[in-house]
Request: fold
Amino acid sequence: MKVAVIVFFLGAFLGGVCTYYYPEIDTNVTPFDRNGDGAADTQYIYRSDGSLKLLKMDRNYDGDIDDETEFDTSNLPVKEFSDDNFDGEFDTRTIYEFGIIKETLSDLDKDGEEDLRVFYNYGVMKKFEVLAEGEWKVVWIEK
Reply:
């Protein structure tokens, strides 16, 4: 009897720890083959409540994920990471607000720091900046 009680409480403790550290257990991963080559190019990952959590895409069909978009529980995009030069590393980060693009940041020279920023207002590009000689320079701004 003592062993059964200890095992019960140990299981309850481990279950609580797992629930605390992994609150969103993905219950459904749906692969999709967009180009018909037999390999999944797109993965839709859903939360246990049925809302879309993550969309992963292989945009150039080389087998590597080039784009990951995270969604909130209302299925609106929150942020996106993309590998725009297909070198295997994400170099562009896009931020969304209420599902509408707000800002894009890119590391074009692969030094680990962003050197291109694009700002949007209600999804429309408003300002385009590049990092040159350690300073942000406005290249274009909507007038």
